[in-house]
Design brief:
Radius of gyration: 17 Å
CATH topology of the largest domain: Nucleotidyltransferase, domain 5
Bound molecules: beta-D-glucopyranose
Structural class: alpha/beta
Strand order of the largest sheet: 3-2-1-4-7
Low-confidence stretches: none
Mean pLDDT: 96
Distance between the termini: 16 Å
CATH class of the largest domain: Alpha Beta
Number of strands: 14
Helix content: 25-40%
Order of helices and strands: EEEHEEEHEHEEEEEHHHEHEH
Length: 255
């Protein structure tokens, strides 16, 4: 299985995995999704990862995207999954100890961004590129001349909630989960999300914004309503990017 790495995307609603051919950035076979257990503990997530490893009968390097800040392999934040349960945890080490596979953990949006830059909508694009993943939260990765600036966390920019007048995390207002929670029309969502895009753009000035995550497959419903003074592309790898990028990063980070 040379060049074939197990990529895992840990999310608030599902833990997803697939074997990735990292030379092409493509899945080898099917993707497996296990609903994230409601307990949201490291042990519960570890069990899901164990089930994915067994289902693929896999041994080798594993790349894992996680929805939080990861520095030196330690989880520093976990807003949408488990909160304090994960802080200070070295999940990669736990995977190694429990399943004998060497693992590499990185932020999920950074993983998705790496995949888009290497194999997808950002391939061969220079300059400053932002890749946004819009799903349970809003993840942001940015690249300068193809190099990642990790752990940016712009989904937590504070924006005004019209209903309460309070300033809250942008992702609480404009993620796909927020849209689904109140059954918002795509037009209404796009007008709110545009406010986030404009705010983000005013602070970072990228040359290109790539929009990925769960909403990427619905771009026909919202792209026409987006307003921001920046080039926009829809992610090519769509919601496969997190898995593909995690596998790619493991292949380059674990020697
Ligand atoms: C987290 C980010 C993550 C994003 C998308 C946010 O709540 O803080 O680290 O990339 O969700 O999952």
């Amino acid at each position: 299985m040379k060049g074939k790495i197990l990529g895992i995307d840990i999310g608030g609603s599902g833990v997803k995995g697939a074997i990735v051919d990292v030379s092409r950035g493509e899945f080898v076979g099917e993707r497996l999704r296990i609903p994230t257990p409601a307990t949201h503990t490291p042990a519960a997530i570890l069990d899901c990862i164990g089930s994915i490893i067994s289902a693929f009968n896999y041994s080798g390097k594993i790349g894992c995207g996680f929805p939080g800040v990861i520095r030196s392999q330690i989880i520093e934040t976990a807003a949408n999954i488990g909160g304090k349960n994960f802080i200070g945890v070295n999940l990669a080490e736990m995977i190694g100890l429990n399943y004998g596979c060497e693992a590499w953990l990185l932020n999920d949006a950074d993983a998705a961004g790496m995949a888009e830059m290497r194999y997808g909508a950002g391939k061969d694009v220079n300059g400053v590129v932002a890749v946004l993943t819009v799903g349970t939260g809003i993840g942001v990765s940015m690249f300068v001349g193809g190099r990642l600036v990790p752990n940016l966390e712009f989904g937590h920019l504070k924006m005004r909630d019209k209903k309460t007048g309070r300033n809250i995390d942008a992702e609480k207002l404009y993620s796909d989960a927020a849209r689904k929670r109140v059954d918002m029309s795509w037009k209404t969502w796009a007008s709110g999300f545009s406010k986030f895009l404009k705010y983000f753009h005013s602070l970072t000035r990228p040359d290109l914004i790539i929009i990925g995550g769960g909403v990427a497959s619905k771009s026909d419903k919202f792209l026409k309503y987006l307003e921001v003074d920046c080039d926009i592309k829809i992610a090519q790898l769509q919601n496969r990017a997190g898995i593909i990028g995690a596998a790619y990063c493991a292949s380059t980070s674990i020697k």
